[in-house]
Amino acid sequence: MKILGIETSCDETAAAVIEDGTVIHSNVIASQVEMHARYGGIVPEIASRQHMTAMIPVVQTALSEASINLEDLDGIAVTHGPGLAGSLLVGVNAAKGLAVSHNLPFIGINHLEGHIYAAWLEDGVDPESDPGFPIMCLITSGGHTDLIVMRGHGDYQLVGRTRDDAAGEAFDKVARVLGLRYPGGPEIQRVAEGAPETEPFPRAWMQGTDEFSFSGLKTAVINRARKLGIFPRKNSDDEVDPVVVAGMARAFQDSVVDVLVTKTIAAAVRENCAGIVLVGGVAANRQLRETLVASSPVPVAVPPVELCTDNGAMIAMSGRVNYRNGRRDAWDLDVIPNLRIGAPTIS
Ligand code: KG4
Ligand code: ZN
Question: Is the full-model pTM beyond 0.90?
Answer without folding.
Answer: yes
